[in-house]
Specification:
Blueprint: E1 2-6, E2 9-14, E3 17-23, H1 31-36, E4 45-46, E5 52-53, E6 62-66, H2 70-75, E7 84-87, E8 93-94, E9 99-100, E10 107-108, E11 111-117, E12 123-130, E13 133-134, H3 135-138, H4 146-149, E14 156-157, E15 162-163, E16 175-180, E17 183-189, H5 197-205, E18 215-217, E19 239-244, E20 248-254
Parallel strand pairs: 6-18, 8-14, 9-20
Antiparallel strand pairs: 1-2, 1-5, 1-15, 2-3, 3-4, 6-7, 10-13, 11-12, 11-18, 16-17, 16-19, 19-20
The structure holds zinc ion.
Zinc ion binds at residues 64, 110, 112, 131, 217, 219-220.
Length: 255
């Protein structure tokens, strides 16, 4: 199944159309009922992409993983190390077709597979995500300032939808493609993850309690702007397009 947040309402997608099933915040209150109901006979309406909000509105915890692809770890200068885990704050979440304000001229892209936790450590679904990052602040101090630099308003575009695992042939081998104004800047497969999703869940669960609706940004592959020569960042007017096999495409614009 595919769930989306359409103007604050939780909807189930059928092809290009949507069935309204409640408030956007109610997904995990009623997960078993929502996923076991046949919504195909319910009245469906059109989807205006501009009205798509983040599929998970207020996760209690957002984890993000750094340097979890070989090529990215190499360009970040930290090959073969255990991936670092940090957080993004929930106020940065936005929808798949958002217009995002650039706080500085040094904002970078990071396409990522986002895993959404369900009950009892199960993965409820997956989404396309962007772990947008303000690089100057991230690296300004003596130690990297990941969480703040990655949590400006709009720095967490997610969606267009949450896709349940049964919709995917193989969640461990999906293609990710990120493009700036149509030019491909990142292209990889989730099979290249150093720590794949089941191991990330196990690792986090060993130290803390994962809650329904929690998000795990699983890391970005090589090709970010910061490590180019010269570095390249997002500019006003740029359109950032991010696609993952089976999870749809998001397209955000910067100003
Ligand atoms: Zn990231």
């Amino acid at each position: 199944m595919r769930f989306a947040n359409l103007a604050g309402r939780l909807v189930v997608l059928h092809g290009e159309r949507a069935v309204d099933v409640g408030a956007a915040s109610s997904l995990f209150d009623r997960w078993d009922v929502l996923t076991s109901t046949d919504w195909s006979r319910h009245e469906a309406g059109p989807v205006d992409p501009a009205l798509l909000g983040p599929p998970i509105v207020s996760p209690r915890q957002i984890f993000a993983v750094g340097l979890n692809y070989g090529a990215r770890a190499d360009e970040g200068g930290l090959p073969d190390q255990t991936p670092v885990v940090f957080t993004k704050f929930a106020s940065c979440l936005t929808g798949a077709h958002a217009v995002i304000d650039l706080p500085t001229p040094t904002v970078d892209w990071e396409i990522e597979l986002v895993a959404v936790m369900g009950e009892r450590g199960q993965v409820a679904g997956f989404m396309v995500g962007q772990d947008l990052t303000e690089r100057r602040e991230q690296f300004r101090g003596a130690v990297p300032q990941f969480s703040l630099a990655k949590s400006h308003p709009g720095f967490g575009p997610t969606g267009p939808w949450l896709v349940t695992p049964d919709e995917l042939d193989d969640a461990d081998d999906l293609e990710l493609i990120c493009a700036v104004n149509g030019e491909v800047v990142q292209q990889a497969r989730t099979s290249e993850l150093i720590v794949p999703v089941p191991a990330l869940v196990a690792r986090l669960s060993a130290q803390l309690t994962l809650l329904p609706g929690d998000l795990i940004f699983t890391g970005t592959p090589g090709g970010v702007g910061h490590h180019r020569n010269p570095p390249r960042y997002l500019a006003p007017g740029d359109v950032l397009t991010s696609s993952i096999t089976g999870l749809g495409t998001q397209s955000v614009t910067f100003r």
